[in-house]
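Example record

One chain of 65 residues, shown exactly as stored in the release files.
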Amino acid sequence: MHSWSPPFSTNPEIAPLAKTNYSFEKRQREIAKKKKQDSKQAKKLATRDDAKMEPTPRASTTKDA
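Predicted structure tokens for this chain:
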């Protein structure tokens, strides 16, 4: 005869796995995405600032005749 068992168990060998916390995972992905965007923006600003700092040789607009 088959014995009845409750829908949950305190036995760790047959205990069901914990549910995935999707909200936490989504928030972690959003944080990582924001961090990546911030680093790209900082890198872009740094290269832009470096370009402003370096004097660019200007082409002469007068012609020597």
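Notes: The chain has one helix and no strands.
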